[in-house]
Design a protein that fits this description.
The complex is a heterodimer of chains A (257) and B (266). Chain A is α/β, with parallel strands linked by helices and 257 residues long. Chain A folds into 2 domains: 168 residues, Rossmann fold (3-Layer(aba) Sandwich), CATH 3.40.50.300; 69 residues, no CATH class. In chain A, 41% of the residues lie in helices and 26% in strands. The radius of gyration of chain A is 18 Å and the shape is globular. The N and C termini of chain A lie far apart (44 Å). By secondary structure, chain B is an alpha/beta fold. Chain B has one domain: Rossmann fold (3-Layer(aba) Sandwich), CATH 3.40.50.300. Chain B is built from 9 helices and 9 strands. In chain B, strands 5-6-7-3-8-9 form a 6-stranded mixed sheet, sandwiched between helices. The C terminus of chain B is likely disordered. The chains are: A alpha/beta (257), B alpha/beta (266). At the A-B interface, helix 7, helix 8, helix 9 and helix 10 of A face helix 6, helix 7, helix 8 and helix 9 of B. Chain B: Keywords: ATP-binding, Hydrolase, Nucleotide-binding, Transport.
């Protein structure tokens, strides 16, 4: 069983500009590690950098990736040990292939085919709350809602039997109800399947709801790392205080008994 | 005094592809609403509840299948009512400068000359806390938050009595949402503009609005003044209220630990 995934010294540059500066993160199985920060602070690039899926022109230097302390290559991890869930689920699917083809492709990578694959796909779709599985599988990405596609992305991650999940703003495009359901699902999978999650978000409400550890990012650097209770009760960095102030000015009233 | 009066509004669409069987989707049925002058009203609803359809009908971008929308203000309508859209980037002409776009309502709805328009645009940019040099930038050169503020500046340009914000804050981060709500509150105090804030996020309504209505199953199922203690009674509205994220992380209870241990055994 894989227990930890560590990225060390992740530095990303575009030409001479440093976009992400010596970032270190450790994900633990069965825990949600939140990565928070303002727009443009380098959160998404960090998650792409971990899997070496950088956009053209952005270069990584000196980073090392460790799975349970053993150095590994990002190309061997992605889609297998580590899955990625993106903000905009519609653009993450191939528009001319049905979701069934996506699922079968994922299982094919694991060497599973035929009846066994079909049964596993059905069971996994039920696990993520897509109960109308045949309709979903026959559909194309544009025929389903954002919330359903987000669940399908998670289902694909589960089909790949990933131990770790990198989720980049997974709920920002969903309405509050779909968001609550998605976070419920994530939490259940963390508990039941011992999944390790990196949850990238700008919403401290999401952090309060389901994170264990929090890293705060500003201008490409990690400026604070703390346990979620410690961060909410005694934030150290200016960035964390700004995020919490915005969060509390929107939530304190509504939470008053 | 009601400013816009909506009575027994019904509207729907035909869904389905060119070759598939056509389905009729009824979005609004029997909706009644009174919008009051100078009031900031929150319109709350989940995805697909018909919020944007209602906004488009109010603006006259589509005409309703049945029912009436009566505007009781002084015409022309667009001089009194303006709208800000969710996707700021697609709401601007990509080939024209920000200043040109913000001045567009002035060119069509007022008799200001070019110099007066430019002065007004500069004043508006300052009001929404954009820089004076942003006036010549293209939409693609601004960030999402800056562009949304430019959208608000454009809606304010003609000095309307009502601004409709259709999920205009949903794509922004929390820090920006709070900044823009503060900005809008200031506009409301200074000029008495009314707002219709369309959103799925109750926390925004609670911060900004005086009254909230909830849209579900094609009609308004709640209509309440906004207070800290307000509680919805309709099931759909309660779902929206209960989905609001917590202010603080919850303390892990003993039960959770027990659950985790039982799971390990399994």
């Amino acid at each position: 069983m894989k227990q930890t995934l560590t990225i060390r010294d992740l530095t990303l540059k575009h030409r001479q500009r440093t976009l992400v500066d010596r970032v270190e993160l450790t994900l633990k199985a069965g825990q949600v590690h939140a990565l928070v920060g303002a727009s443009g602070s380098g959160k998404s690039l960090t998650s792409l950098g971990i899997l070496d899926l950088l956009p053209p022109g952005v270069h990584s230097s000196g980073a090392s990736l460790l799975l349970d302390g053993q150095a590994v290559d990002a190309a061997q991890l992605r889609g297998r040990q580590v899955a990625l869930v993106l903000q905009n689920p519609r653009s993450a699917f191939n528009p001319v292939r049905s979701l069934r083809q996506h699922a079968l492709e994922t299982l094919h990578a694991r060497g599973l085919q035929g009846v066994e694959a079909e049964q596993l796909i059905q069971a996994t779709l039920h696990e993520v709350g897509l109960h109308d599985d045949q309709r979903v599988l026959d559909s194309f990405a544009f025929q389903l809602s954002g919330g359903m596609l987000q669940r399908m992305m998670i289902a694909l991650a589960l089909l790949a039997d990933s131990r770790f999940l990198l989720a980049d703003e997974p709920t920002s495009d969903l309405d509050v109800v779909a968001q609550a359901r998605f976070l419920d699902l994530l939490q259940r999978l963390v508990e039941q399947r011992n999944l390790g999650v990196l949850l990238i978000t700008h919403d401290m409400g999401v952090v309060a709801r389901c994170a264990d550890q929090v890293s705060v990012m500003a201008h490409g650097r990690i400026v604070e790392q703390a346990d979620v209770h410690q961060l909410f009760n005694a934030p150290q960095s200016q960035e964390a205080r700004t995020l919490l102030a915005a969060h509390h000015s929107l939530t304190m009233e509504s939470c008053a008994p | 005094m009601s400013f816009i009066q909506v009575r027994d509004l019904e509207h729907g669409y035909s869904a389905g592809g060119l070759f598939s069987k056509r389905h009729r989707v009824q979005v609004l049925s029997g909706l009644n609403l009174d919008l009051h002058e100078g009031q900031s009203l929150g319109l709350l609803g989940g995805s697909g509840s018909g919020k944007s359809t209602l906004a488009r009908l109010l603006m006259g971008l589509e005409s309703a299948d049945r029912g009436s929308i009566v505007f009781k203000g002084q015409p022309p309508f667009l001089q009194r009512v303006q709208m800000v859209f969710q996707d700021a980037l697609s709401a601007f002409n990509p080939q024209r400068s920000i200043g040109w776009s913000i001045a567009e309502p002035l060119r069509h709805l007022s008799d200001m000359d070019a110099a007066a328009c430019r002065d007004r645009v500069e004043q508006l940019l300052q009001q929404v806390q954009l820089e004076a040099r942003d006036i010549d930038k293209l939409p693609a050169q601004l960030s999402g938050g800056q562009l949304q503020r430019a959208g608000i500046a454009r809606a304010m340009a003609i000095g309307p009595q009502l601004i409709i914000l259709d999920e205009a804050l949903s794509n922004l981060d929390r820090v920006l949402q709070v900044q823009i709500l503060d900005l809008l509150a200031q506009v409301r105090h200074e000029s008495g503009t009314g707002f219709l804030l369309i959103t799925h996020d109750l926390s925004l309504v609670q911060r900004f609005c005086q009254r909230v209505v909830v849209l579900a199953e094609g009609k308004l199922v709640e209509d309440l003044p906004v207070t800290a203690q307000m509680r919805f009674t309709h099931p759909a509205a309660r779902t929206l209220q209960e989905a609001v994220l917590p202010a603080m992380p919850r303390v892990r209870t003993v039960r959770d630990h027990v659950d985790a241990r039982t799971l390990e055994k399994l």
